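Appendix C. Worked example: Flagellar P-ring protein
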Amino acid sequence: MIRLIATALAALLALASPAAAQSTTRIKDISSIQGVRDNQLVGYGLIIGLQGTGDTLRNSPFTEQAMQSMLDRMGINVQGLSLRAKNVAAVAVTANLPAFAGLGTRIDVTIASLGDATSLRGGTLLVTPLNGADGVTYAVAQGQIVSGIQITGQAETLSQGVPTAGRIANGALVERQIPGQLSELPEILIDLTNPDFRTAALMADVINAYTQARYGKRLARERDLRTVVVQRPPHSGTARFIAEIGELRITPDTPAKVVVDQRTGTVVIGRNVQVSTFAVTQGNLTVQVTEAPEVSQPEPYTFGETVVVPRTNIQADESGGPIGIVRGTNLQQLVNGLNRFGLKPSDIISILQAVKTSGALQAELVFQ
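Step 2, the predicted output written as structure tokens:
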């Protein structure tokens, strides 16, 4: 038992060494805990106090209806009256409710215009309930909005940001908590950001080494390529335990993949990409087409017509390149081999396609 604990502690010290820290990643940076997530909220509200840049009520009847409903709740009867206000705008209000947010917690809200308002700058959002997907109100938003600006003259327009959208920092108060607490989780499910069987197995091994040394039990097991299941240790707080295993370090395994963005000419080659030895040559074919039409003029005192005769000159120039052998057993040798040719990104993309077709590229080729 003592030897087993000593072995586990030695493994943990090796993970914490500077040399290992340069090539490893914390578990918290490549995964998330199931059930610990944000919840999206949405609401419909009114912004008042605009300087003539609000909705045109004739074109946005929902804004007028919202104004009438608001005034009715305040005891002001405006039924049957034609409203002509230009300083009011209907908006959609969205927010993310953090996990385990308590009552009275302030959260940020984002606002976007629903009607034909030209600017929301300087407006104030009235009390707006924010509902979840279940229709329950979890927060209430209110405050002065910060948005972009747009100044229009007769010959020029100056814009900064989006004038019909904005944000209120700490603009909403949480009025109801999401059901469920961290301590009620029967077991901890860790989801990998980039699912992989080997990474999941490595994560389970590292967690087991830690829990064996600290609690005397192996508490983790990999369920599939995405999820690692960890049992809650006895007599230990769940939050503290999650914080402890989040600091453990592993070396994630990455699939052999080459990603090509043909729009920008960007090529990203993964660390585990392997290539077999292949020979390649690269040359450019330049075709130049020159149009030099000639005018055919009839002889004097004849009944001929002046016509334009087309004359086309086509020249083709193919610059040949030497054939070279690329021996790429790893990423560095592959890059060095391609760099010897002085290729452009478009040429590298063409070569990678041909190498993949020939079967020499032992990786997945992804085009975006």
